[in-house]
Design a protein that fits this description.
One of its GO terms (molecular function) is transaminase activity. This protein is α/β, with parallel strands linked by helices. 38% of the residues lie in helices and 16% in strands.
């Protein structure tokens, strides 16, 4: 076997043949930078994959993981516990908006979504509303890649290859309204009425068939769609009116990305279930989870027979000791370094910096909130996505990591980013966007 043989590894969400012809290899990471195998430093404009909120190689988190591995490497999560699981759950409930009661652990954002959807169905059944089996997602939504997630998700490329998906799923319209909201700084003004689509689905299917509605507070993976002012409030009130659980998929927006612990606090709208992952452990050890509002756990427990497992759901690695240690240390770092507040403080500068790109020929829209930005380009002469990918490739060569989805550049740097690094990312983009056909 040759050490540099790249053929055996089937890479996820990657153009494998293209990558293997011209690999990009990361061998280290520290603070705001990745190190490549050819000895270059790459400024991280994406917090890895929206997850390394406190930057890389954070000493306190590294040490917590090392110590935990030496002390307790694994404990079975069914019918037994380890103290860090309980401590972490208490800390997460404290971080959540008022009124949340319990945390359930899994290992990723995709699993958090499955867990949320199953919990919603179980709750409806436990409270005597077993006819509520329908799940509502949204066009352009991304909820991971498991069957439940792609069923409620709304990105065609992630769904089209995989058969009939879950039955009984419907979708709201997405909230992108280029006619009215182009180049909005922060929350767009127009489109709260798009939430009335849920009312339409209630009229179509009957409220008594709908268990839950799941949305990302900001649809990030599709290219950063910030919800119009009043939209989430309106969804909340339609859900309340019709007994529908509202799930916020906060896998990206959790842990300070919008300057608050969760997007729910930033928007002042409280869902019934929050999914989380990524920033939960600062991306260091795989972990996901859901937070449920008070009453959900109690109702499901009360409906179970004495001695029965109340929710037949869980993973071998639910509440894994290394993940719990990493999460506890991450929460310490976020709090002690004031990173959520730091993100809030940087937001105006970030907004001004990214919007300074307006006017460059191929840019058709710029959107932002918190430390997130989406820069949408006109498709290049070689077809959809090609111009953005070429910009991505050149940024990598010039030492800046960005993310692209179709013709949209998405930026989400670690919350420790310095002003000069914001300028460096934006100046690099300005130069490269102007060069690429
Ligand atoms: C909103 C949302 N939900 C779920 C997921 C899936 O998370 P994972 O890749 O950890 O399964 C993602 C990943 O980006 C996400 O953005």
């Amino acid at each position: 076997m040759k050490l540099n043989d790249l053929s055996s590894y089937w890479m996820p969400f990657t153009v494998n043949r293209q990558f293997k012809a011209a690999p990009r290899m990361i061998v280290g990471a520290q603070g705001m930078y990745f190190q490549t195998d050819d000895g270059r430093e790459i400024l991280d404009g994406t917090a890895g994959l929206w997850c390394s909120n406190a930057g890389h190689g954070q000493p306190r988190i590294v040490e917590a993981i090392q110590q935990q591995a030496a002390k307790l490497d694994y404990a079975p999560p069914f019918q037994m516990g380890s103290p860090a699981q309980f401590e972490l759950a208490n800390r997460l409930v404290d971080l959540a908006p008022e009124g949340f009661g319990q945390v359930f652990y899994c290992n990723s954002g995709s699993e958090a979504v499955e867990t949320a959807l199953k919990t919603a169905l179980a709750w409806q059944r436990a409270r005597g509303e077993g006819t509520r089996t329908r799940l509502v997602g949204r066009e352009r939504g991304y909820h991971g890649i498991n069957f439940g997630g792609i069923s409620v998700g709304g990105i065609v490329g992630n769904r089209a290859m995989f058969g009939a998906l879950l039955a009984g799923v419907d979708h709201l319209r997405h909230t992108h309204d280029p006619q009215r909201n182009l180049f909005t700084q922060g929350v767009p003004e127009h489109g709260a009425d798009l939430a009335d689509d849920l009312e339409r689905l209630v009229q179509l299917h009957g409220a008594q068939t709908i268990a839950a509605c799941i949305v990302e507070p900001i649809a990030c993976s599709t290219g950063v769609l910030v919800p119009p002012r009043g939209y989430l409030e309106r969804l909340r009130s339609i859900c309340d009116r019709h007994g529908i659980l509202l799930i916020f998929d906060e896998v990206i927006t959790g842990f300070g990305r919008l300057g608050t612990p969760f997007a729910a606090q930033r928007f002042g709208v409280t869902p019934d279930i929050i999914t989380m992952a990524k920033g939960l452990t600062n991306g260091t050890v795989p972990m996901g989870g859901i937070l449920v509002r008070e009453g959900i756990y109690e109702t499901i427990c009360a409906a179970a027979a004495e001695g029965a497992v109340e929710l037949p759901h869980g993973y071998t690695y639910s509440g894994h000791p290394l993940a719990c240690a990493a999460a506890l240390a991450s929460l310490d770092v976020y709090r002690e370094e004031g990173l959520f507040e730091r993100a809030a403080g940087l937001e105006p500068l970030w907004q001004e910096a990214v919007h300074s790109l307006r006017g460059l020929a191929p840019i058709v829209d710029i959107r932002n909130l918190g430390l997130i930005a989406g820069i949408e380009l006109e498709a290049g002469p070689n077809g959809p996505g090609t111009r953005a990918f070429e910009i991505y490739r050149r940024c990598w060569e010039e030492g800046v990591l960005i993310r692209v989805t179709g013709d949209i550049i998405a930026l989400s740097p670690p919350l420790i980013i310095e002003e000069g690094q914001v300028a460096h990312i934006v100046d690099t983009l300005r130069r490269i966007i102007a060069q690429v056909d």
